[in-house]
């Protein structure tokens, strides 16, 4: 195993792929697998831990299985015509898959947690569902918002910030929003003066409760980005 740069990522070479550990600013980390000629794959357990309030491998596996079809529906909305890639088994322990029986053993919760992965486009689909589904509690949705925010902060800190073109709410033209290395940006270009005045009233009401206001801010951040 080798360490590179600021030790935010640890890489492990294994056959035709490399395994890295992505460390987020909130102290959490996820295992990712860089596969030649394919999307990056993420450890399914690590992803599910970011959007569900449990550390049980059995429950996380159940969530990943039960919500797969729903995430695929989100995938079709995000990328029309693109077939969702299949999750992979065996990146961490390829040698165990010598027969169908051992593949079935990989469905056991603890071993599943060690070897099951999900491609990036499906991770984003799971994340979109987990943030936007109104049937989820505000606590669960806020958990997903925090994961999204941490991913975006990691992205912008890595690439040195970015400029993103957005269609201003209440206007008919695009504006360039500058996002700095910490993931912060000015909201002035997100909407017209008229819409901005209405938003100010919403903020004034929301911030009357600090906890409620923080949730609103997280939702606004994710919507804007």
Chart the SSEs and their pairings.
Elements: E1 2-4, E2 9-14, E3 17-23, E4 29-34, E5 41-43, H1 44-51, H2 57-66, H3 68-78, E6 88-89, H4 100-105, H5 109-115, E7 116-119, H6 120-132, H7 138-159, E8 162-167, E9 174-179, H8 193-206, H9 210-224
Antiparallel strand pairs: 1-2, 2-3, 3-4, 4-5, 5-7, 6-7, 8-9
Helix pairs in contact: 1-2, 2-5, 3-6, 6-7, 7-9
Query: Using DSSP, what is the number of strands?
Result: 9
In sequence order, what are the helices and strands, one letter per element? EEEEEHHHEHHEHHEEHH
What characteristic shape results from the CA principal axes? globular
Residues in helix, %: 40-55%
Give the biggest beta sheet.
7 strands, antiparallel
Low-pLDDT runs: 1-7, 9-15, 90-106
Task: Provide key terms for this protein.
globular, disordered N terminus, 47% helix, two-stranded antiparallel ribbon, 225 residues
What does this structure look like?
It contains 9 helices and 9 strands. 47% of the residues lie in helices and 19% in strands. Residues 1-7, 9-15 and 90-106 have low confidence and may be disordered. It has helices at 44-51, 57-66, 68-78, 100-105, 109-115, 120-132, 138-159, 193-206, 210-224; strands at residues 2-4, 9-14, 17-23, 29-34, 41-43, 88-89, 116-119, 162-167, 174-179. It folds into 2 domains: 2-135, no CATH class; 160-224, no CATH class. It is an alpha+beta fold and 225 residues long. The two termini are 35 Å apart.
